[in-house]
Design brief:
Largest sheet of chain A: none
Strand content of chain B: under 5%
Number of helices of chain A: 11
Distance between the termini of chain A: 110 Å
Helix content of chain A: over 70%
Helix content of chain B: over 70%
Order of helices and strands of chain A: HHHHHHHHHHH
Number of strands of chain A: 0
Radius of gyration of chain B: 27 Å
Shape of chain B: elongated
Number of strands of chain B: 2
Radius of gyration of chain A: 27 Å
Largest interface: A-B, 60 and 76 residues
Strand order of the largest sheet of chain B: 1-2
Oligomer: heterodimer
Strand content of chain A: under 5%
Largest sheet of chain B: 2 strands, antiparallel
Order of helices and strands of chain B: EEHHHHHHHHHHHHHHH
Structural class of chain A: mainly alpha
């Protein structure tokens, strides 16, 4: 066997791989695009990931182990929570959510920790931040972080009703913005698998927004007429309030069971 | 079809396409009619011969202790996911699936590389290779048989790991179902609502939540997508095995084969990044110097895109893979297998043994 033949074999082998490389390129590009469209592998390699996951963890994520790495870092975030290390938690949440952007639970809990737990801690942390104004500002910053997680989570999981539901909850309880909350609940109600209460929330919260009474009344009326199961105390109460506010004639007002009727108008 | 390099025999080489067919020549005289008919009856490719080599390879591989060691280690790791579940404060079932599937993914890769890298050097060291190729066995049949043997071993290993994982998942799914039942005691809630202890509508809400959690549990555990994902892990291991075999066809030591294959696989996981930058989709391609673009093009063209086969992480997170995506991934995987075995043959066909 001559050295020439061996070289020829190698050259031919390399040629085959090269030709295949050009043949597979459009196929892989299309498949990668299809995966991206289905929101597969949407993780991003960032410097925070490198710092928090460590060298081994970083290599593991590249080697197809990003889900277990994200789980381990999530456990570390839990430990950080027990030690009230909010900054470290935020870094770990960033890594977990960037490793597994399709895990709704990561976005949901990261937002909850920031907007609820860390914000309350910041507002009450008189030991480290004696000034009330500073504490208030810190609280607002944690609110913003929580909102950011929810919005980014929605960006990665636009089909998730849960994240819209949490966003509505956040706007209602933290920002005290019922109009935004109603809009978020409305979006949640359009997503598959949602629970019925999000529709009620979308309608009843809108009832508290000046200028939106008619829209709210329409929505509540639709719910009322849809099913007797929807005749819940809050809906019935708000419906009566809207009827009074919009001055709906008595003859057009809906039937309200005795126990849920509001006291007569003065 | 005969061996090459035997000094006492002359061989006639007939190039048929890229395959070289070597017919036995007879040194002293012309072939007799019987020899000629035997030679013409000899098939260029025989499934039986390939199957015999595959069977022997499979037997050799399962007899090796390292195989059992790795399988046991993988099973322990899958079992260990139960421990991680206990320290995880949320999404325990998810953690269990992530760690188990991760273990299957990694061990299948290791098994594919280590089992395949030793095949050729071991046969050369034992001189089995020369005995086989002295028989009327084409080098292509030999390589294909070896690959099929490794694939059979990988399939058995994957079935074992998947069965163990399914058993653990089944038990854990039952526990989760019990928890959901205890979280939403529907009969008690209905009774409380009837007696006015809880507001009207509580029972309907609880029923909805119960249905939602049960549905979620079922949708994220035993689904066709999950098993499709496990099949993609196996396919990736098969591609890696073919890649290893191709590298070992021109390498001189198994260590070189292992290192080169792992490097190519690792780079393969970064191919999407290289491709995006090269094609300018990452938004920075235009600013790069030409030699870097050339390097990225080389990486994209020569290395397999391993991320294409990395769907299990998203499947474990609840994403659904369409059947067309599965089909395309499978086609690409089999394309890689065919090309690597053919390129491996070309490296091996002219190699001095």
């Amino acid at each position: 066997m001559s050295a020439f033949s061996a070289t020829k074999g190698r050259a031919l082998g390399l040629l085959v791989i090269l030709v295949w490389g050009f043949v597979k390129l459009p196929v892989e590009t299309r498949l990668a695009a299809a995966q991206k469209e289905n929101r597969f592998g949407g993780f991003k390699i960032t410097s925070t990931l490198r710092q928090q996951a460590g060298q081994a963890g970083f290599l593991a994520t590249l080697g197809g182990l990003r889900a277990p790495v994200a789980d381990l870092l999530w456990i570390r975030a839990h430990v950080a929570w027990q030690d009230t290390q909010w900054g470290k938690m935020k870094l770990l949440f960033d890594v977990c959510t960037s490793l597994q952007p399709r895990r709704v639970m990561f976005w949901d809990n990261s937002a909850w920790h920031m907007a609820w737990n860390a914000s309350v801690y910041a507002l009450n942390d008189k030991k480290h931040v004696p000034e009330q104004v500073e504490r208030y500002r810190n609280q607002q910053q944690y609110f913003a972080l929580g909102e950011d997680y929810l919005l980014r989570g929605i960006e990665s999981n636009p089909d998730s009703w849960e994240l819209y539901d949490r966003l509505g909850w956040f706007y209602r309880d933290k920002r005290l913005d019922k109009l935004k909350a109603a809009a978020a609940y409305e979006e949640a109600s359009k997503r598959p698998g949602r629970l019925d209460y999000v529709r009620r929330q979308a309608a009843t919260l809108l009832a508290d927004c000046p200028g939106h009474e008619e829209e709210a009344y329409r929505k509540m009326l639709a719910l009322y007429r849809e099913n007797e199961r929807e005749w819940l105390p809050t809906l019935l109460k708000k419906l009566q309030q809207m009827e009074r506010k919009l001055k709906i004639p008595q003859s057009q007002r809906v039937y309200i069971p005795e126990e849920y009727r509001l006291p007569p108008e003065q | 079809v005969c061996e090459e390099g035997n000094e006492n025999e002359q061989s006639i080489q007939l190039p048929i396409g890229l395959f070289r067919v070597h017919f036995y020549g007879v040194t002293a005289s012309l072939p007799s009619p019987r020899d000629a008919s035997a030679a013409s009856a000899h098939k260029l490719f025989s499934f039986r011969r390939t199957g015999a080599i595959a069977g022997n390879t499979f037997r050799d591989l399962v007899r090796q202790k390292v195989f059992y060691f790795m399988i046991v280690f993988a099973l322990i790791l899958i079992g260990m996911s139960l421990f991680l579940v206990s320290v995880s404060f949320q999404g325990q079932l998810q953690t269990l699936m992530d760690v188990s599937l991760g273990a299957m993914s990694v061990f299948s890769m290791f098994l594919a590389v280590l089992a395949t890298a030793m095949l050729l050097p071991k046969d050369m060291e034992d001189r089995t290779l020369y005995t086989i190729l002295a028989k009327p066995v084409a080098r292509f049949e030999y390589l294909l048989g070896k690959l099929c043997g490794v694939i059979a071993m990988l399939t058995v290993a994957m079935v074992l790991m998947a069965s163990f994982f399914s058993a653990i998942l089944f038990v854990w799914q039952g526990r989760e179902m019990d928890r959901i039942h205890s979280d939403y005691p529907m009969a008690e809630i209905a009774q409380a609502e009837a007696t006015g202890k809880v507001p009207h509508g509580t029972s309907a809400d609880a029923q909805q939540k119960f249905d939602l959690e049960s549905r979620k549990l079922k949708e994220t555990t035993f689904t066709p997508t999950l098993f499709g994902g496990i099949a993609v892990i196996l396919l990736r291991a098969m591609v890696i095995a073919a890649l290893t075999l191709m590298v070992s066809c021109f390498s001189t030591s198994w260590l070189f084969t292992v290192i080169v294959t792992f490097m190519v696989v690792l780079v393969g996981f970064l191919v999407p990044v290289a491709r995006d930058v090269w094609q300018g989709q990452a938004g920075i391609g235009g600013d790069l110097p030409g030699y870097i673009k050339l390097f990225l093009a080389g990486v994209t063209v020569f290395c397999p895109d391993m991320q294409i086969f990395n769907v299990i992480d998203d499947i474990a997170a609840g994403s659904v893979v369409t059947s067309s995506m599965f089909m395309h991934t499978a086609s690409l995987g089999f394309g890689y297998l065919a090309v690597y075995i053919f390129a491996g043959y070309l490296f091996f066909a002219w190699r001095e043994l």
